[in-house]
Amino acid sequence: MKMIIAEISKNRTALSNASSLQEIATRMANFGYNARKIQQGRGIVDRTDMMHSLKKDKLDSKLHISQTLEVDTKACRKLYMSHVKVARQAFDPSTGIHRQLGIDRAIPQPVTEWVPLASVFYSKLQEIYDQMTRYTIPKEEVNQGKAMVEAIRNQRETRFAKKGEAEASTYTRDLALKEMRNWMNDFYSIARIALKDQPQWLEALGIQVKSKKV
Predict the structure, then answer these.
(1) What is the DSSP letter of 32?
(2) Choosing a second label site near 183 at 20 to 30 A (CA), which of 59, 74, 75, 123?
(3) Range of lowest pLDDT (96-100, 113-117, 131-135, 139-143)
(4) Helix, coil or strand: residue 29
(5) Distance CA 103, CA 98 (A)
């Protein structure tokens, strides 16, 4: 990330100096890099900068939703499992309610497997809540559990969308970066020819010049 930002900054400075320093501008114009051509390069650099910033924003957004989802998922499962334990004691398994609640078997660990079970569990539990006589779960906790499960499902969908956006922005940034590097490589190659007898001008464009041995 930082290296790309530094590269963009270097290119932007080089093109700025190629326009503002008259001696350099004149030499470069003689080799086809007139004001219009330099402006084209600036546009490419600016577009790369914008695409790079967009990629960072998309990655940050994806990271944020992933971190939030991880915390919320742990809290949801903890509440769900505590309710499963109570429900197993509250209902007679011979009535078939355990099967209807999805608690007649071990609760799987993968999120993709237990979240759908939890959704069915809370929906059914709300329907038969009044049948809980031996043990009970506060109704507000049942409602909270259902809301948390739905939130997890929504967040997972959002994370999937954010992942797609991040991948698309990376692809677009990489295309822009390739275009900028190709354009700037040509620019620097011509600059080395046009300004070969003026090392200080080359350095003004960010081109390192080997000092001659005395």
Answers:
(1) T
(2) 59
(3) 131-135
(4) helix
(5) 5
